[in-house]
Amino acid sequence: MERFDLIIIGGGIVGLWSAYFAAQRGLKTVLVEEHGIAAGASGGVLGALMPHSPDRWNAKKQFQFEALNQLPGLLQEIEARTGQNVGYRRVGRIAPILKEHHVDDVARRAEGANEFWQTEQSAFAMQHMDAGPAANWPAVEAMPFGVAADNFSARLSPRKLIMALAGSLHGSIDMRFATRAAFLGEKQVTLGDGSILHADKVLVSAGLASFDMLRPYAPSISGRGVKGQAAVLGTDLDPNLPIIYSDGVYLIVHDDGTTAIGSTSEKEFTEGRETDHLLDDVVEKARALCPIVKDAPVIERWAGVRPQAQGRDPLLGVIPQHDWLYVATGGFKISFGIAHLMAQSVLGALCGDETAPSIPKEFTPGNRLPR
Ligand SMILES: Cc1cc2nc3c(=O)[nH]c(=O)nc-3n(C[C@H](O)[C@H](O)[C@H](O)COP(=O)(O)OP(=O)(O)OC[C@H]3O[C@@H](n4cnc5c(N)ncnc54)[C@H](O)[C@@H]3O)c2cc1C
Question: What's residue 199's pLDDT?
Fold first, then answer.
């Protein structure tokens, strides 16, 4: 039996950031991934880092705000360490306004941004504009009452970040791929080849599979998968163009000039990895929004299943009555913007480090159990 300080189950964005901070803390760590790096929801193409709307402020919005602020510095650290670029750029976002009375909502959010989106270094803002900053992005008729524009949203390349993160871990933690982890008992995990790992702490960051894995230890914790489909168009556009977000459809230009289009949001599905006509509909909506991508070929179609914990907040922290068992999942649609802070705070809890970022009470497993 091999012994570790920490076993991390799952090599998606949450598991990899957790491994990164575990290594920084000097924990003897093994990460187990059933398939390959980013085989789950983290292997996608969009990479939007969009803040929650700056009104009706709450703990989840504050957590995401702090995470989005911290992310550029951490990404620079990873890039410097690996020499790999992760495709990050703070390009802002424009959201076409489709109904006149929504103009007032933007004014209210702009006030909220002035209050909540401020740090000592940066003042982020939202404002109403008659049109986006670039011609035909989107088409004039797609923004009958102008746009809500913010300068806080950003994007990155999910796959590039995943590869860089995995590369940065080389030599500092043990990684086991193509092998499935299953609980054998307290602090013990068995792998597909029959070998047994033992650790003081186990962190489940297995995306959607986390909910089933935890059931024996926390039967009342639940979650579900929400399938998403996305595509990449072979464009050659300016990578500084802001993200467009309209009625559930995103257009995101990446550093190579291609445009990622997303996403469907499917609660009912049979095959989580396959794309179908629902993606065609999203692509058609995107083409109608921005006729400059009208004839661009679809060069990739992709689907994955987002983990959504019951109650919609991320699920983060210790499993009550099992002080060796931790969970970090349920980032749902915003994981790439918060996974690093989820990782730091769960590692802090796991190490009993009170100086680490704290976990909002709403996120904790203890908060989801019947009282
Ligand atoms: C179409 C689409 C678009 C999206 N767009 C965005 C976006 O623009 N911005 C954003 O922030 N988020 C976005 N998301 C959401 C984001 O991708 C997910 O929330 C995130 O990837 C979840 O990461 P995770 O690490 O929790 O789970 P996963 O990436 O699913 O990782 C879990 C890993 O655990 C492994 N695993 C499972 N069971 C076991 C086991 N028993 N043993 C070992 N390994 C196991 C799996 O193989 C998997 O690799 C999008 C998702 C989709 C589907």
Answer: 98
pLDDT cut 70: percent of the chain above it: 99
**What integer pLDDT is reported at residue 28 of this predicted model?**
98
Residue nearest to atom 10 of ligand 1 (CA): 334
pLDDT band with cut points at 50, 70 and 90 for residue 189? very high
Give the residue among 258, 263, 227 at the shortest CA–CA distance from 245.
263
Residue 9 one-letter amino acid: I
Dist. CA 190 → ligand 1 center (Å) = 22
Strand 243-246 to 93-96 pairing: parallel
Closest CA to 125 of 153, 98, 157: 153
Cβ-proximal residues to 280 (8 Å cutoff; 6+ apart), any chain = none
- Residues 17, 122 share a domain: no
Q: Is the CB of 272 under 6 A from ligand 1?
A: no
Q: Which domain holds residue 364?
A: 2-44+160-222+311-368
Q: What is the ipTM of this complex?
A: 0.99
Residue nearest to atom 37 of ligand 1 (CA): 206
